[in-house]
């Protein structure tokens, strides 16, 4: 737990922990420290992926850490689109990673093979060969 | 209605707040981050006299002074847009609309990205992100990493990461592409490196910097730049190697690095992979000035100041009545310059309230001198032509206001 913390520093000295803050991320329980952002508390646990790209599903983590790139968006207590890098970690926060979304308008490669009518769809489903359209 | 609203609680914003409070102005400081201090918070470097510049301590000093003067500082507030009204400014934030007679925008700077393929993988971050994680949150960003992009800021932060016990394989350039441009050119990077040479406990670099004033010798220096890089604090800095790609499935697993010519062209067949679990990208800083743009403040592009900068005079006034700027939004310089500019801006704003003008004018002159002296004595200079850039800005202001 918090294994990625820098406990001792030659110039800044020992890390002083004022208060532990419990929270959950994707249903699992963790503990951060007072003064943490959501991003720092998660990174301290070795958690780097905060969301996946809404369409492609590719993993994303913090990039700029100053609230500009919006790569670290998470859902906090049901509110989506919260920037993990700017948001203070509060006790008992329920944090969820950003998930892949349904992409209804995504272009498909085999669009010529797709059914154009419900009748065609049913025929394809039954494995029947497509008839010549009725005249 | 506040006398002045200050956006940004960094060295410029806090110093301005202190100066304005000393003249008894009604001040509100807002900042997007959860604690005040701005980019001071991450800074940690050794000055030539051996003393440490500890940004966290410096920010505490400013904050205590501001608190003594009962300054209202609110964190976690983002300003989205601003409107100029008859009486001043309406600032739209996530906590509602804030009204002020005068406005000081002290938003600082942001980092330019130097994107290379694979840069969206978790474990890739801006060098500034790594700085805050390391020094403010005391979180290790990874086990072993590489810094892509060699400039004043990235060398300083690489050193900070080393201090915290984080293993860095090396620093190298980003491979040239349409987005990385000059960051991938060894000749241009060499110039930047020379500006911080005096900070390096490496005789090779210090020795070199004395003889590399001219462009011709710089080109030669790049040509004969050691294949193994030059070591700064034991970490190789490569100007003749570039990272072409960041590899990994769910996070960073390695980078592909190759040898490059003095012009930054990839030498075919020189590619190889280095295992790292994090990558810091450093594309340099630019003034963060959108909020000045949305109210219609005129801008001037000045390369020496870091890009597009709101037009302002030496007193930190813009041509828009009641709008002031201070800190890195006016040009990329050190936190010490930003702090001095903040004091000057605070006094200039107090002057608009028109009390005890003789005393105030005296303080303004002193504050102006202070900015100049600190600039001349700066340890870290982000651009060698900073003075030239500053006088170009004076001319731009004059042209707009009197021209």
TrEMBL record, chain A:
InterPro entries: 2Fe-2S-bd_N (IPR042204), 2Fe-2S_ferredoxin-like_sf (IPR036010), 2Fe-2S_ferredoxin-type (IPR001041). Coiled coil: none annotated. It is an enzyme of class 1 (oxidoreductase). The keyword Oxidoreductase applies. One of its GO terms (molecular function) is sarcosine oxidase activity. Its EC number is 1.5.3.1. Keywords: Oxidoreductase. This is Sarcosine oxidase subunit alpha. It comes from Anoxybacillus andreesenii. The lineage of its organism: Bacteria, Bacillati, Bacillota, Bacilli, Bacillales.
